Amino acid sequence: MGKIIEAENIGYVYQSKYQKTKALTGVSCSFERGKVYAITGKSGSGKSTFLSLLAGLDVPTEGNLYIDGKEIREIDRDAYRMNLASVIYQAFHLFPLLTVLENVMFPMGLQHVPKKEAKERAHDFLAKVGLPDTLYGKMPNMISGGEQQRVAIARAMASGGQILLADEPTGNLDSQNEAVIVELLGKMAHEENYAVIVVTHNEKVAEAADVVYGMLDGRLEVVRA
Ligand SMILES: Nc1ncnc2c1ncn2[C@@H]1O[C@H](COP(=O)(O)OP(=O)(O)O)[C@@H](O)[C@H]1O
Ligand SMILES: [Mg+2]
Question: How confident is the model at residue 1 (pLDDT cuts 50, 70, 90)?
Fold first, then answer.
């Protein structure tokens, strides 16, 4: 299968008025759909920076990053973020004033899916992540962290993308909920054909991944291919 993402010798420097921080150096790797990739490494090694480049939030200061064969500087990054790449975080980032169901409907609204259809599909996605329908009308702060993370994954599914990026998605969860999220990330790759890229400190998450990359001082190495 083709590579959905290809990083070619990318570097990234944070630059403020008074100092420069080189966060990434010579990073080359690729990602295919249908696989889970874990990116491990110590705090400060550049994992979140790399993920934010993959998410199209910024562009590399050196090298090239290809998304489906096109260089990231040449594509509409807003459209990329809306249509192809979803991000989930450690702190679940749901919309606090929307219900569970409305959170999952939201990306489909942006894509002008008719409301009735969006609602039906949101039900399907929430069922896929194993949430009981008694929770669909609740606000995010009324459900547990594990449940919120499942809603975040259902919302990512609803965006209909090809790439799921996750930054420490199990960071706030107990081991039981962690296992559920690991299983769902696997489903996203193996059943829904996403390229799933997970930044993690968690051994279990890395063990379950198909490919493991390690980050050390801004450089990426293959830990397990
Ligand atoms: N907004 C920022 N401005 C300046 N330096 C930053 C910023 N964000 C991260 N850094 C620096 O970049 C390096 C990599 O950070 P980060 O990508 O957050 O690592 P990780 O996610 O692995 O902990 C660190 O030295 C960090 O201090
Ligand atoms: Mg980080």
Answer: low
Q: Are 167 and 89 in contact (CB under 8 A)?
A: yes
Determine contact, residues 77/56, Cβ cutoff 8 Å: yes
Q: Pick the closest to residue 26 from 220, 178, 156, 176 (CA basis).
A: 220
Give the distance (Å) from ligand 2 centre to CA of residue 197: 13
pTM over 0.90: yes
Please give the distance, rounded to the nearest whole angstrom, from the Cα atom of residue 115 to the centre of ligand 2. Answer: 36
**Ligand 1 near 220 CB (within 6 A):** no
Q: Which residues lie across from 216 on neighbouring strands?
A: 219
| Domains in the chain with CATH codes | 33-56+76-212+220-224 (3.40.50.300)
* DSSP H or E stretch at residue 216: strand 211-216
Q: What is the pLDDT of residue 90?
A: 82
Whether the CB-CB separation of 33 and 51 falls below 8 Å is answered with: no
